[in-house]
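seq as requested:
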Amino acid sequence: MSEVNKPAEEEIRWYVVNTYSGHENRVKENLERRVESMGIQDNLLRIIVAEEEDIEIKNGKQVSKMRNLFPGYIFVEMRMTDEAWYVVRNTPGVTGFIGSSGGGAKPFPVSPSEMDSILRRLGQSDAKIVVDFTVGDTVKILSGPFIGMEGRISSMNDQTQVASVLTMLFGRETPTDIAYTDLVKVDEEGE
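struct tokens:
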């Protein structure tokens, strides 16, 4: 079968795997070991437990603790081949896939926009926002404490997708870091 005509089921997509709650990291480790030992790295690419760091103050000390955003679930980026599907389903601690009707039916993948939202929250997004502004352009801030204010872009960080915008605060130009998604270019032709 040629590369051009390969079936859609062999696309690399994200899937949600159901695990025993509290065992997500153990399942991730088990799955990573199985992928390595069975040599299917080309079909199972990334395995993510969606965790965020919570910082608490206890007895005057700062304590950080990881909090699972989706208890009982892990996210697997994979090519849904019969072999990869079998390996994931039969990993200790896995109870099944979300989006599978059972009876041998393969699961539906997570939509790219939903998965990108989760990855972005975890700081692992691959998607880059395409913007129509650049350093020196005037932009309007769409949300947050500076909503409605305009400023000039002094620098842009494509890695973090954040621009430094010079806004007028208390009569001074003040740099403020704003996410690309919260900015829109101001059309200056009318001035």
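Confidence is low (pLDDT under 50) at residues 1-7.
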